[in-house]
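for the recovery benchmark. tokens below, seq after
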């Protein structure tokens, strides 16, 4: 019999209280595991330390096994990460931020687990994408996540126009994310590329003390930019949502 792969959500950043965003049963389940797969072992240990402050860990920290899975992990190494599970031990897949396997390299491991008939149990926790959709006021009945847009200015503009057309024709909210140092350029590109009536939501620091979520038309965002009243989001991961009107 194989073990179970638990998909363990992480916080979206430094939070005032772990229990505000990670349910108690998720913390308790996490504390009972001794095998983990994570993007970064150091940050995984930091998360486990927070969990351990509320629930005793099953083993001392130095005895907990953490294997890394990130963009540098070769596909051939994935099966080796499943060895504890194939041997009958439970394991946790821990995201760097938010929920595992969504905009996260863990999806490949989850797919391989299914191929080996390993039970997969997703645990409840914060997803910046779903929280942004909830708070945006845009269409939550039909939406699509598009990851990161091109960094090249011309390609980014082309992609934005494609997403705007799709959102208008299908009445579908289009989501994408951006790194902190490119947030300003992204908002400027949106206001320069999209129609004035298109709705745009900018969501930063979701579930954290500095949370800010604003939905306005492109014309209104352009006015904000002109007045120097843009959000203070240049050092924060951001979710953008657009819906053509």
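predicted aa per position
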């Amino acid at each position: 019999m194989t073990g179970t792969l638990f998909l363990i959500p992480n916080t979206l950043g430094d939070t005032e209280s772990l229990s505000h965003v990670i349910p108690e049963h998720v913390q308790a389940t996490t504390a009972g595991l001794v095998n983990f797969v994570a993007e970064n072992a150091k940050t995984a240990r930091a998360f486990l330390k927070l969990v351990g402050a509320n629930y005793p860990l099953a083993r001392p920290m130095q005895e907990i096994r953490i294997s890394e899975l990130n963009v540098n992990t070769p596909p051939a190494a994935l099966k080796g990460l499943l060895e504890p599970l194939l041997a009958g031990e439970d394991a946790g897949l821990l995201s760097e931020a938010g929920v595992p396997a969504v905009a996260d390299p863990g999806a490949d491991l989850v797919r391989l687990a299914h191929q080996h008939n390993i039970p997969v149990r997703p645990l409840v926790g914060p997803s910046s994408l779903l929280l942004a959709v909830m708070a945006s006021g845009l269409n939550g009945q039909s939406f699509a996540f598009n990851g990161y847009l091109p960094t090249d200015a011309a390609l980014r503009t082309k992609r934005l126009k494609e997403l705007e057309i799709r959102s208008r024709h299908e009445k579908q909210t289009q989501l994408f994310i951006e790194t902190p140092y490119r947030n300003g350029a992204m908002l400027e590109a949106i206001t320069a590329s999209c129609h004035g009536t298109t709705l745009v939501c900018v969501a930063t620091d979701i579930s954290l003390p500095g949370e800010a979520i604003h939905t306005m038309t492109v014309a209104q965002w352009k006015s904000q930019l002109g007045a120097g009243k843009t959000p203070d989001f240049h050092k924060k991961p951001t979710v953008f949502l657009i819906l053509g009107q």
